[in-house]
Structures are given as structure tokens and as C-alpha cells.
Design goal:
alpha+beta, Thrombin, subunit H, Tumour Suppressor Smad4, 2 domains, six-stranded antiparallel beta barrel, 26 strands, elongated
Length: 446
């Protein structure tokens, strides 16, 4: 007699293990690529301020940056030169917002100055990075307030309070011929008004103070007052992409002498993994977990005992997929019908099948499914909820902050505002025992 085979449900063919390991290695190597994080431009802008120096109706502005705890600002000495003739200096933050200050230290040799503000400002202090962390061709960012960008015919007045950003690279490290002041040569755009502003590295750390660009004076011919022409002198760039910034090491020795606190980084605190961790820690934890799993998989694959263990686990898993279940041995679970029964009072003899959607009980017809007499003031408009959890196979009651409470059969009051889980056969009432209910499970068909 011919026997027919039982049909076997096809399963996905097992993927060869070497492919899994290859994919794991690729993922692992990908995770080793350092994360390239964008510089924190918004934070860099917050630490950059516009510095003014005024004497009578004459004066000008430059740039600076916050140090200390918002109490001091660094800029170039030539930006605050008017104070030597009785002028006043300070910072402008926005329209009608700023504060004056006092120059507590200045050096014409280094072209640096420190202003102590009359009122601290709520701006973050910068972090520094020493010149030892800086190399030729490193990307740098010049932040400040170039005066040419204040052209009222091109932009509105508020733009003069917005920090401008330009980007370039470190072209070389220099030392001045006469004063031995250490400088960076850079190709980022520098213009009058940028003087005194911060030079940032890729990690948002200040490595220098912008000071000057290659300029020269040329003779110009301009329209005269009476319609003729008159000669003049103007400053124009001597070369393209040639500017200088004072290395931050020249400033730090002075801050030590002035006892002004500051923070020096290693040039890497906000880059790569660390900045990515600050911006998205959960993603970094997930990637680290994947990398760990890849390492474990690779370690198992490279050892004979590991490969044997993997084969056994794979065979066991495939065997469980193909394992047959005899339908004759499956015992059907009895179908349960959860009921809310009325035992006494106006709902005596009522039976209502429950599910996970709770049934509301009260005296307001729009807020309740089981509605009590509207004259029964002991019952609240929406007194309680009753339902059944299909997974837990358990009833629950919830008092909806009723005026007179909901009680179990033994006069135990239910705490309002949260589900109260109760077993099969529980009896309860609302406000008083004259109207008693029961929660009962019965097999369907009974």
C-alpha cells in the first residue's frame, strides 16, 4: 500500500555562516571609522560678542569673546585703544542690550586686552586649545563682526548684531620678527571688525585671537565737495587669503597672572565619538552593542570550539523549526465568557459579557453604559469602570473618583483612580450594598 508523506512547510534556507561573519566584520569595521561631528557653531556664536570703544561722538567696534564666568571679555588692544584717551569700552549684545566695562590689562606688544564687564552677561565662556594641538592645514573658523557687513543698504539694522562666520585653514605658524609673538597665518576671510574675535578649531575650541590681515595703503581719487576730484588714501588687501591670529598661548599666561579661570582642552573633547555621544547617546549605545556582538561572533568563528558550538546551536534551531506537532495531542483551551451579573437591586438578574474595553457605571446616560436612576444621588454621574483582561484572565474595577465610593463584598473600599484587579466570583457594590453585583467566569455554551 502506498503511503503519502505528510506535507512539510518549507522554511527559509539557512544562511551560510561565513556570510554572517563577513557581514559582522564589515559592520564592525564601519563602527571603527571615527564619527565626524560638525562644529558646534551655535555655541561658538554665543561666546562671541561685539566690542565697542567710544570717545565723545567718535569710536568704532571690533570683536571679542567671553571668558571667566561671563565677567570678562578678550579682544585686541587696538580695538580698545580709545580708553587711553579717556574713552569708554564695553560689549553690545543686541538692540538696547549691552554693558560697559574696564580694561584691566592690555599689551601693545601682543595686541591683546582683557575687559572686566560692569555687569556679567549670560553667555558661555569659551574653551581653549593650545598651539600644540594645532597643525598646518587644520580647518579653522573666524567668528566676529566685520564692519563691511553692516551696510544698511544691503541688510537690515538687526543683522549688525548677528555673528558672522568664515572658514579656512591654518597656512603656517609664525613668530613676529621684533616682539617674538606667536601667530597663526590663515586663509579665512578677515576684515576690519573681525579684530579681537575668536579663531576656533573644528571642535569649537578657541586656538587664537584674530588680529590683522595683509593690507596696504594706496592713493585714491575721490569726488570732491565742490564737484571736482580730490586725492585720498585707502587701505586695500595686499594679498588674497593672508591673515593672522595671535596664538592662544600668548593669552593664557596673562590670564594666569590675572587669576581669571579658564578651561584648556586637548583639542578633541567635542569631536568624533565624544560629540556624537553628547548629541545622541542612545544611538551610540546601540552601535556599541552591535560592535560588541560582532566581536563575539568573530571570536567564536576563529576558534574550533566556537565553530562547534555555533553548529550545534544552528542544528538545534533548525530542528526546532522542522519539529512536527501532533494535532491529536493539542488540547483545546475552554472558551471563557466573563460576565457581570446583577444580584440584588434594580439590575437583579442582569448578565453582561465583558471584555478589555471597560464598562462605565453611573447615573448619567451619556457618561455610562449601565445607567442608574437619575434620582439616586448616592451614585455619581460616572461612578466606576468594570472590565476583563483577556490576557491575564482577570477582572478589574476602577472607582472614577466617585462621591460615595465603590466597595468589594466585604465592605473593602476601592482606591479611586487606578484599576483594582479582582478574582473570579468577586462581589461588589456602589455606594451601598442594596445593589450588589458579581463578576463571574463561565465556560461558553453553559
Amino acid at each position: 500500500m502506498n503511503r503519502t508523506r505528510d506535507p512539510v512547510i518549507p522554511t527559509c534556507q539557512a544562511i551560510s555562516f561565513h556570510r554572517i561573519v563577513s557581514a559582522a566584520i564589515v559592520i564592525f569595521l564601519f563602527l571603527q571609522i571615527p564619527a565626524v561631528a560638525a562644529p558646534p557653531i551655535a555655541l561658538m556664536k554665543q561666546s562671541t560678542v561685539r566690542v565697542f570703544c567710544l570717545k565723545g561722538d567718535q569710536g568704532g567696534t571690533g570683536s571679542g569673546f567671553v571668558i571667566g564666568e561671563g565677567t570678562h571679555v578678550v579682544t585686541n588692544n587696538h580695538v580698545v585703544a580709545c580708553v587711553e584717551d579717556g574713552g569708554k569700552t564695553g560689549v553690545i549684545l543686541d538692540v538696547n542690550q549691552g554693558t560697559t566695562g574696564e580694561v584691566i590689562w592690555q599689551s601693545a606688544t601682543k595686541d591683546l586686552a582683557v575687559i572686566k564687564l560692569d555687569h556679567p552677561i549670560s553667555r558661555p565662556a569659551v574653551m581653549f586649545a593650545r598651539s600644540s594641538t594645532v597643525n598646518d592645514a587644520d580647518n579653522v573658523y573666524v567668528l566676529g563682526f566685520p564692519g563691511a557687513a553692516d551696510d544698511r543698504q544691503a541688510v537690515d539694522a538687526r543683522s549688525q548684531f548677528e555673528v558672522k562666520v568664515s572658514r579656512g585653514i591654518i597656512s603656517a605658524k609664525n613668530i613676529t620678527s621684533s616682539e617674538n609673538v606667536r601667530l597663526y597665518q590663515l586663509d579665512a576671510s578677515l576684515n576690519p571688525g573681525n579684530s579681537g574675535g575668536p579663531l576656533y578649531n573644528e571642535n569649537g575650541q578657541v586656538i587664537g585671537i584674530n588680529s590683522a590681515k595683509s593690507m596696504t595703503q594706496v592713493l585714491t581719487i575721490q569726488p570732491g565737495e565742490n564737484g571736482g576730484i580730490q586725492p585720498g588714501v585707502s587701505r586695500v588687501p595686499l594679498g588674497e587669503g593672508i591673515g593672522w591670529a595671535i596664538q592662544i598661548d600668548e593669552l593664557l599666561v596673562e590670564l594666569d597672572r590675572l587669576n581669571i579661570p579658564y578651561t584648556v582642552g586637548t583639542g578633541e573633547e567635542l569631536s568624533g565619538f565624544n560629540q556624537s555621544w553628547q548629541q545622541a547617546p542612545l544611538i551610540m549605545v546601540f552601535l556599541a552593542a552591535i560592535g560588541l556582538l560582532c566581536l563575539i561572533s568573530l571570536a567564536l568563528f576563529l576558534t574550533p570550539s566556537g565553530r562547534k558550538w555555533i553548529k550545534q546551536a544552528s542544528d538545534k534551531g533548525i530542528g526546532s523549526i522542522h519539529r512536527r506537532i501532533d494535532p491529536d495531542k493539542i488540547k483545546p483551551q475552554p472558551a471563557i465568557k466573563p460576565l457581570l451579573r446583577g444580584l440584588t437591586g434594580p439590575f437583579s438578574g442582569m448578565e453582561l459579557e465583558l471584555d478589555s474595553n471597560p464598562v462605565a457605571m453611573g447615573r448619567h446616560p451619556l457618561a455610562s453604559s449601565i445607567v442608574f436612576d437619575s434620582k439616586n444621588r448616592e451614585i455619581s454621574r460616572r461612578h466606576c469602570l468594570v472590565g476583563y483582561d483577556l490576557d491575564k484572565k482577570t477582572f478589574f474595577l476602577e472607582d472614577c473618583w466617585s462621591a460615595n465610593g465603590a466597595f468589594l463584598g466585604g465592605n473593602q473600599k476601592i482606591e479611586p483612580g487606578e484599576p483594582h484587579w479582582v478574582p473570579d466570583g468577586t462581589q461588589f457594590y456602589l455606594a451601598n450594598p442594596s445593589c450588589l453585583f458579581e463578576l463571574k467566569q463561565i465556560a461558553k455554551g453553559d
